[in-house]
Design brief:
Order of helices and strands of chain B: HHHHHHEHEEHEEHHEE
CATH architecture of the largest domain in chain B: 2-Layer Sandwich
Number of helices of chain A: 5
Shape of chain A: globular
Structural class of chain A: alpha/beta
Structural class of chain B: alpha+beta
CATH class of the largest domain in chain B: Alpha Beta
Number of domains of chain A: 1
CATH architecture of chain A: 3-Layer(aba) Sandwich
Oligomer: heterodimer
Largest sheet of chain A: 5 strands, parallel
Radius of gyration of chain A: 13 Å
CATH superfamily of chain A: Response regulator
Distance between the termini of chain A: 19 Å
Protein backbone atom coordinates (compact mmCIF):
# COMPACT_ATOMS: atom_id res chain seq x y z
CA UNK A 1 0.00 0.00 0.00
CA UNK A 2 1.28 3.46 -0.88
CA UNK A 3 2.55 5.52 2.03
CA UNK A 4 0.76 8.84 2.53
CA UNK A 5 2.93 11.93 2.72
CA UNK A 6 1.67 15.38 3.68
CA UNK A 7 3.56 18.19 1.98
CA UNK A 8 3.24 21.49 3.83
CA UNK A 9 4.59 24.20 1.55
CA UNK A 10 3.32 27.68 0.75
CA UNK A 11 5.08 28.07 -2.59
CA UNK A 12 2.78 26.75 -5.30
CA UNK A 13 5.55 25.72 -7.68
CA UNK A 14 7.51 23.91 -4.98
CA UNK A 15 4.35 22.04 -4.03
CA UNK A 16 3.59 21.15 -7.62
CA UNK A 17 7.00 19.81 -8.57
CA UNK A 18 7.71 17.91 -5.37
CA UNK A 19 4.25 16.33 -5.26
CA UNK A 20 4.53 15.22 -8.89
CA UNK A 21 7.91 13.65 -8.30
CA UNK A 22 6.78 11.87 -5.13
CA UNK A 23 3.60 10.54 -6.78
CA UNK A 24 5.72 9.22 -9.63
CA UNK A 25 7.59 7.20 -7.03
CA UNK A 26 4.44 5.70 -5.61
CA UNK A 27 3.63 7.97 -2.69
CA UNK A 28 0.14 9.27 -2.04
CA UNK A 29 0.61 13.01 -1.53
CA UNK A 30 -1.63 15.38 0.43
CA UNK A 31 -0.89 19.10 0.40
CA UNK A 32 -1.32 22.01 2.78
CA UNK A 33 -0.46 25.64 2.04
CA UNK A 34 0.23 26.95 5.56
CA UNK A 35 1.19 25.68 8.97
CA UNK A 36 -2.32 25.69 10.43
CA UNK A 37 -3.75 23.80 7.48
CA UNK A 38 -0.84 21.38 7.82
CA UNK A 39 -1.71 20.69 11.47
CA UNK A 40 -5.42 20.32 10.66
CA UNK A 41 -4.78 17.91 7.78
CA UNK A 42 -2.30 15.90 9.81
CA UNK A 43 -4.92 15.44 12.57
CA UNK A 44 -7.57 14.47 10.04
CA UNK A 45 -5.60 12.16 7.74
CA UNK A 46 -2.74 10.91 9.97
CA UNK A 47 -0.16 10.63 7.18
CA UNK A 48 2.89 8.44 7.65
CA UNK A 49 5.26 11.37 7.09
CA UNK A 50 5.16 15.14 6.76
CA UNK A 51 7.51 17.24 4.65
CA UNK A 52 7.37 20.54 6.49
CA UNK A 53 8.62 23.80 5.05
CA UNK A 54 9.64 26.12 7.86
CA UNK A 55 8.85 29.62 6.59
CA UNK A 56 5.07 29.29 6.40
CA UNK A 57 2.16 31.72 6.82
CA UNK A 58 -0.43 31.58 9.63
CA UNK A 59 1.78 29.45 11.86
CA UNK A 60 5.33 28.62 10.83
CA UNK A 61 6.78 25.15 10.35
CA UNK A 62 8.54 25.10 13.74
CA UNK A 63 5.32 25.86 15.61
CA UNK A 64 3.32 23.40 13.49
CA UNK A 65 5.88 20.70 14.26
CA UNK A 66 5.78 21.52 17.99
CA UNK A 67 1.97 21.28 18.00
CA UNK A 68 1.98 17.93 16.20
CA UNK A 69 4.67 16.43 18.41
CA UNK A 70 2.88 17.64 21.56
CA UNK A 71 -0.39 15.97 20.53
CA UNK A 72 -0.72 12.29 21.48
CA UNK A 73 -2.77 11.67 18.34
CA UNK A 74 -0.14 12.99 15.94
CA UNK A 75 3.21 12.73 17.71
CA UNK A 76 4.04 9.45 15.95
CA UNK A 77 3.88 11.11 12.51
CA UNK A 78 7.38 11.46 11.12
CA UNK A 79 8.40 15.02 10.23
CA UNK A 80 11.18 16.03 7.86
CA UNK A 81 11.80 19.78 8.00
CA UNK A 82 12.78 21.44 4.76
CA UNK A 83 15.21 24.28 5.33
CA UNK A 84 17.20 26.69 3.20
CA UNK A 85 21.01 26.59 3.29
CA UNK A 86 21.04 30.32 3.81
CA UNK A 87 18.84 30.23 6.89
CA UNK A 88 21.24 30.15 9.78
CA UNK A 89 20.10 28.02 12.69
CA UNK A 90 17.02 26.58 10.96
CA UNK A 91 18.30 23.02 11.19
CA UNK A 92 18.88 23.10 14.95
CA UNK A 93 15.58 24.86 15.62
CA UNK A 94 13.72 22.27 13.54
CA UNK A 95 15.23 19.38 15.49
CA UNK A 96 14.51 21.19 18.78
CA UNK A 97 10.88 21.57 17.68
CA UNK A 98 10.69 17.79 17.34
CA UNK A 99 11.39 17.17 13.64
CA UNK A 100 12.77 13.68 13.04
CA UNK A 101 15.14 14.86 10.32
CA UNK A 102 15.75 17.78 8.02
CA UNK A 103 16.75 18.38 4.43
CA UNK A 104 17.78 21.44 2.52
CA UNK A 105 16.16 23.26 -0.38
CA UNK A 106 16.49 22.99 -3.29
CA UNK A 107 15.59 19.40 -2.65
CA UNK A 108 17.96 16.75 -3.95
CA UNK A 109 15.36 14.05 -4.51
CA UNK A 110 17.68 11.07 -4.11
CA UNK A 111 18.89 12.39 -0.78
CA UNK A 112 15.35 13.23 0.39
CA UNK A 113 13.98 9.83 -0.69
CA UNK A 114 16.83 8.15 1.19
CA UNK A 115 15.81 9.96 4.38
CA UNK A 116 12.12 9.24 3.86
CA UNK A 117 12.76 5.55 3.24
CA UNK A 118 15.06 5.32 6.23
CA UNK A 119 12.46 6.87 8.53
CA UNK A 120 9.57 4.90 7.06
CA UNK A 121 11.55 1.67 7.01
CA UNK A 122 10.75 1.12 3.37
CA UNK A 123 14.29 1.02 1.97
CA UNK A 124 15.00 -2.10 -0.03
CA UNK A 125 18.68 -2.05 0.90
CA UNK B 1 14.83 53.13 -11.53
CA UNK B 2 16.27 49.75 -12.33
CA UNK B 3 16.89 49.20 -8.63
CA UNK B 4 13.32 50.30 -7.88
CA UNK B 5 11.86 47.93 -10.42
CA UNK B 6 14.02 45.09 -9.14
CA UNK B 7 13.09 45.67 -5.52
CA UNK B 8 9.41 45.99 -6.45
CA UNK B 9 9.70 42.72 -8.30
CA UNK B 10 11.12 40.94 -5.28
CA UNK B 11 8.48 42.34 -3.00
CA UNK B 12 10.19 45.06 -1.00
CA UNK B 13 7.57 46.93 1.00
CA UNK B 14 5.90 50.17 -0.03
CA UNK B 15 7.62 52.19 2.69
CA UNK B 16 11.03 51.02 1.50
CA UNK B 17 10.16 51.84 -2.11
CA UNK B 18 8.87 55.25 -1.08
CA UNK B 19 12.16 55.86 0.64
CA UNK B 20 13.97 54.93 -2.53
CA UNK B 21 11.73 57.29 -4.47
CA UNK B 22 12.72 60.14 -2.20
CA UNK B 23 16.39 59.37 -2.57
CA UNK B 24 16.32 59.68 -6.35
CA UNK B 25 13.11 61.61 -6.75
CA UNK B 26 14.13 65.28 -6.93
CA UNK B 27 14.73 65.27 -10.69
CA UNK B 28 11.56 63.27 -11.28
CA UNK B 29 9.39 65.73 -9.37
CA UNK B 30 11.00 68.62 -11.21
CA UNK B 31 10.19 67.28 -14.64
CA UNK B 32 6.44 67.03 -14.21
CA UNK B 33 6.01 70.76 -14.72
CA UNK B 34 2.32 70.65 -13.76
CA UNK B 35 1.28 73.41 -11.30
CA UNK B 36 -1.38 71.19 -9.70
CA UNK B 37 1.27 68.56 -9.06
CA UNK B 38 3.48 71.11 -7.36
CA UNK B 39 0.55 72.25 -5.24
CA UNK B 40 -0.32 68.71 -4.33
CA UNK B 41 3.29 68.03 -3.44
CA UNK B 42 3.34 71.12 -1.21
CA UNK B 43 0.42 69.67 0.76
CA UNK B 44 2.14 66.35 1.36
CA UNK B 45 2.83 65.66 5.02
CA UNK B 46 6.41 65.44 6.21
CA UNK B 47 7.88 61.99 5.65
CA UNK B 48 7.45 59.70 8.62
CA UNK B 49 10.21 57.36 7.51
CA UNK B 50 13.94 57.61 7.12
CA UNK B 51 15.57 57.09 3.72
CA UNK B 52 16.75 53.54 3.27
CA UNK B 53 20.53 53.86 3.37
CA UNK B 54 23.56 52.25 4.96
CA UNK B 55 22.75 49.46 7.42
CA UNK B 56 19.01 49.57 6.65
CA UNK B 57 19.75 49.01 2.99
CA UNK B 58 22.08 46.15 3.90
CA UNK B 59 19.22 44.59 5.88
CA UNK B 60 16.92 44.73 2.85
CA UNK B 61 19.55 43.15 0.64
CA UNK B 62 20.41 40.46 3.15
CA UNK B 63 17.04 39.48 4.52
CA UNK B 64 14.63 40.20 1.69
CA UNK B 65 16.39 40.13 -1.65
CA UNK B 66 18.49 37.06 -0.84
CA UNK B 67 15.57 34.90 0.20
CA UNK B 68 13.31 36.17 -2.59
CA UNK B 69 15.97 35.28 -5.11
CA UNK B 70 16.35 31.75 -3.79
CA UNK B 71 12.71 30.80 -4.36
CA UNK B 72 12.55 31.29 -8.15
CA UNK B 73 15.98 29.72 -8.49
CA UNK B 74 14.93 26.61 -6.60
CA UNK B 75 11.87 26.49 -8.86
CA UNK B 76 14.05 26.61 -11.98
CA UNK B 77 16.24 23.82 -10.64
CA UNK B 78 13.26 21.73 -9.55
CA UNK B 79 11.34 22.02 -12.82
CA UNK B 80 14.49 21.25 -14.83
CA UNK B 81 14.84 18.04 -12.81
CA UNK B 82 11.16 17.26 -13.26
CA UNK B 83 11.45 17.72 -17.03
CA UNK B 84 14.54 15.50 -17.04
CA UNK B 85 12.48 12.76 -15.43
CA UNK B 86 9.68 13.37 -17.95
CA UNK B 87 12.17 13.11 -20.82
CA UNK B 88 13.35 9.72 -19.54
CA UNK B 89 9.77 8.55 -19.01
CA UNK B 90 8.71 9.68 -22.51
CA UNK B 91 11.95 8.33 -24.05
CA UNK B 92 12.82 11.78 -25.40
CA UNK B 93 16.36 11.74 -24.14
CA UNK B 94 17.62 14.24 -26.74
CA UNK B 95 16.35 16.99 -24.42
CA UNK B 96 18.32 15.82 -21.42
CA UNK B 97 21.69 17.53 -22.08
CA UNK B 98 19.96 20.94 -22.42
CA UNK B 99 17.89 20.34 -19.29
CA UNK B 100 21.06 19.40 -17.42
CA UNK B 101 22.62 22.70 -18.53
CA UNK B 102 19.59 24.64 -17.27
CA UNK B 103 19.65 22.84 -13.93
CA UNK B 104 23.39 23.26 -13.40
CA UNK B 105 23.25 26.92 -14.33
CA UNK B 106 20.47 27.37 -11.80
CA UNK B 107 22.53 25.58 -9.16
CA UNK B 108 25.55 27.71 -10.00
CA UNK B 109 23.51 30.90 -9.69
CA UNK B 110 21.98 29.72 -6.42
CA UNK B 111 25.44 28.95 -5.02
CA UNK B 112 26.54 32.44 -6.02
CA UNK B 113 23.48 34.04 -4.38
CA UNK B 114 24.10 32.12 -1.14
CA UNK B 115 27.78 33.01 -1.16
CA UNK B 116 27.21 36.68 -2.01
CA UNK B 117 24.70 36.92 0.84
CA UNK B 118 27.24 35.46 3.24
CA UNK B 119 30.00 37.69 1.90
CA UNK B 120 27.73 40.75 2.13
CA UNK B 121 27.00 39.88 5.72
CA UNK B 122 30.72 39.68 6.47
CA UNK B 123 31.47 42.91 4.59
CA UNK B 124 28.67 44.70 6.44
CA UNK B 125 30.29 43.73 9.73
CA UNK B 126 27.25 41.70 10.77
CA UNK B 127 29.24 38.70 11.84
CA UNK B 128 28.28 37.49 15.25
CA UNK B 129 30.18 34.35 16.10
CA UNK B 130 28.15 31.63 17.79
CA UNK B 131 30.86 29.58 19.42
CA UNK B 132 29.93 26.03 20.36
CA UNK B 133 31.62 22.68 20.76
CA UNK B 134 31.83 21.06 17.35
CA UNK B 135 32.46 17.35 16.93
CA UNK B 136 34.48 17.34 13.76
CA UNK B 137 33.29 13.94 12.50
CA UNK B 138 29.65 15.15 12.73
CA UNK B 139 30.49 18.35 10.88
CA UNK B 140 32.30 16.37 8.17
CA UNK B 141 29.25 14.16 7.71
CA UNK B 142 27.01 17.22 7.26
CA UNK B 143 29.45 18.59 4.68
CA UNK B 144 29.48 15.26 2.83
CA UNK B 145 25.68 15.19 2.79
CA UNK B 146 25.47 18.76 1.48
CA UNK B 147 27.94 17.99 -1.29
CA UNK B 148 26.41 14.61 -2.19
CA UNK B 149 24.75 15.77 -5.45
CA UNK B 150 27.99 17.39 -6.65
CA UNK B 151 30.08 14.33 -5.73
CA UNK B 152 27.62 12.01 -7.45
CA UNK B 153 27.72 14.10 -10.60
CA UNK B 154 31.49 14.60 -10.77
CA UNK B 155 32.39 11.07 -9.59
CA UNK B 156 34.90 12.64 -7.23
CA UNK B 157 35.78 10.50 -4.20
CA UNK B 158 35.81 12.60 -1.04
CA UNK B 159 37.92 11.21 1.79
CA UNK B 160 37.12 13.05 5.03
CA UNK B 161 39.46 12.38 7.95
CA UNK B 162 39.10 14.06 11.32
CA UNK B 163 42.54 12.76 12.29
CA UNK B 164 43.47 13.37 15.88
CA UNK B 165 41.01 16.24 16.20
CA UNK B 166 37.97 15.12 18.12
CA UNK B 167 36.27 18.45 18.69
CA UNK B 168 36.90 22.17 18.69
CA UNK B 169 35.12 25.30 19.89
CA UNK B 170 34.18 27.59 17.04
CA UNK B 171 31.20 28.83 15.05
CA UNK B 172 30.12 25.50 13.58
CA UNK B 173 27.81 26.81 10.88
CA UNK B 174 30.44 29.18 9.55
CA UNK B 175 33.12 26.48 9.58
CA UNK B 176 30.70 24.20 7.74
CA UNK B 177 30.04 26.91 5.13
CA UNK B 178 33.78 27.53 4.74
CA UNK B 179 34.40 23.84 4.13
CA UNK B 180 31.50 23.53 1.72
CA UNK B 181 32.71 26.55 -0.25
CA UNK B 182 36.31 25.36 -0.31
CA UNK B 183 35.40 21.80 -1.21
CA UNK B 184 33.02 22.87 -3.99
CA UNK B 185 35.96 24.65 -5.56
CA UNK B 186 38.48 21.87 -4.98
CA UNK B 187 36.08 19.21 -6.28
CA UNK B 188 35.70 21.25 -9.48
CA UNK B 189 39.50 21.32 -9.78
CA UNK B 190 39.83 17.61 -9.13
CA UNK B 191 38.36 16.22 -12.33
CA UNK B 192 37.38 12.63 -11.64
CA UNK B 193 40.11 12.05 -9.09
CA UNK B 194 39.98 12.06 -5.36
CA UNK B 195 39.88 14.83 -2.79
CA UNK B 196 41.15 14.36 0.73
CA UNK B 197 40.03 16.61 3.58
CA UNK B 198 42.12 16.01 6.68
CA UNK B 199 42.23 17.82 10.02
CA UNK B 200 45.16 18.22 12.39
CA UNK B 201 46.14 20.35 15.35
CA UNK B 202 48.39 23.33 14.71
CA UNK B 203 51.29 24.18 17.01
CA UNK B 204 49.28 27.00 18.60
CA UNK B 205 46.36 24.72 19.50
CA UNK B 206 44.16 25.70 16.57
CA UNK B 207 42.92 23.37 13.87
CA UNK B 208 44.13 23.11 10.30
CA UNK B 209 41.95 21.42 7.71
CA UNK B 210 43.87 20.50 4.58
CA UNK B 211 42.10 19.93 1.26
CA UNK B 212 44.33 18.08 -1.17
CA UNK B 213 43.93 16.76 -4.69
CA UNK B 214 46.48 14.14 -5.69
CA UNK B 215 45.93 14.34 -9.44
CA UNK B 216 46.27 18.12 -9.87
CA UNK B 217 49.49 20.11 -9.77
CA UNK B 218 49.49 23.86 -10.21
CA UNK B 219 52.29 25.63 -12.04
CA UNK B 220 53.69 28.73 -10.37
CA UNK B 221 51.63 30.88 -12.75
CA UNK B 222 48.45 28.95 -12.03
CA UNK B 223 49.06 29.18 -8.29
CA UNK B 224 49.56 32.92 -8.59
CA UNK B 225 46.38 33.22 -10.65
CA UNK B 226 44.46 31.20 -8.08
CA UNK B 227 45.58 33.54 -5.32
CA UNK B 228 44.58 36.58 -7.38
CA UNK B 229 41.18 35.27 -8.43
CA UNK B 230 40.01 32.52 -6.15
CA UNK B 231 36.55 32.46 -7.66
CA UNK B 232 37.62 30.80 -10.89
CA UNK B 233 38.28 27.08 -11.06
CA UNK B 234 41.05 26.74 -13.65
CA UNK B 235 40.86 23.06 -14.37
CA UNK B 236 37.14 22.65 -13.84
CA UNK B 237 35.38 19.51 -14.93
CA UNK B 238 32.54 21.56 -16.25
CA UNK B 239 32.23 25.33 -16.41
CA UNK B 240 28.71 25.15 -15.01
CA UNK B 241 29.58 23.24 -11.85
CA UNK B 242 28.17 25.23 -8.93
CA UNK B 243 31.43 26.53 -7.53
CA UNK B 244 29.86 29.75 -6.26
CA UNK B 245 32.49 32.07 -4.86
CA UNK B 246 34.51 29.03 -3.80
CA UNK B 247 37.82 29.89 -2.22
CA UNK B 248 36.97 33.60 -1.93
CA UNK B 249 34.23 32.85 0.58
CA UNK B 250 36.28 30.10 2.19
CA UNK B 251 39.14 32.56 2.81
CA UNK B 252 36.79 35.22 4.23
CA UNK B 253 35.12 32.75 6.56
CA UNK B 254 38.49 31.38 7.71
CA UNK B 255 39.44 34.95 8.57
CA UNK B 256 36.18 35.44 10.49
CA UNK B 257 37.02 32.29 12.44
CA UNK B 258 40.39 33.75 13.39
CA UNK B 259 42.42 31.84 10.84
CA UNK B 260 43.41 32.04 7.20
CA UNK B 261 43.52 30.16 3.93
CA UNK B 262 46.80 29.10 2.36
CA UNK B 263 47.57 27.53 -1.00
CA UNK B 264 50.41 24.97 -1.07
CA UNK B 265 53.55 25.31 -3.18
CA UNK B 266 53.51 25.06 -6.96
CA UNK B 267 54.50 21.88 -8.81
CA UNK B 268 53.25 19.67 -6.01
CA UNK B 269 49.89 18.04 -5.48
CA UNK B 270 47.33 20.83 -5.02
CA UNK B 271 46.90 21.54 -1.33
CA UNK B 272 44.76 24.19 0.33
CA UNK B 273 44.84 24.65 4.08
CA UNK B 274 42.17 26.33 6.18
CA UNK B 275 43.23 27.25 9.69
CA UNK B 276 40.80 28.20 12.44
CA UNK B 277 41.20 29.18 16.08
CA UNK B 278 39.95 26.77 18.73
CA UNK B 279 38.16 29.12 21.15
CA UNK B 280 38.07 26.68 24.03
CA UNK B 281 39.90 29.11 26.29
Amino acid sequence: MAETVLLVEDNEMNRDMLSRRLRRRGYEVLMAVDGQQGVDMARKHLPALILMDLSLPVIDGWEATRLLKADAATKQILVIALTAHAMRGDRERALQAGADDYDTKPVDLDRLLGKMERLLGTSET
Amino acid sequence: MLVLAFLAGVGVGAAALAAYGRLGGAAGLGTTGAPESAAAAAELPAPSFAPLMGPALDDVVLTVVGHRMRTPLTNIIGYAELLQEDAVFLEQTDFIPDLVRIRRSGEHLLALVDDVMELTSIAAGRVELRVERIVLSDLFERVREALAPLLRRTLVELDLRDGAVDALHTDGERLERALRAGLRHVVALAGQGGVRCEARRSDDGGVIIALSVSGVRLTAAQREALLVDMSQPMVAVDATEPVGLGLVLCAELASVLGGELRVGPADQALRIEISVVDRRA
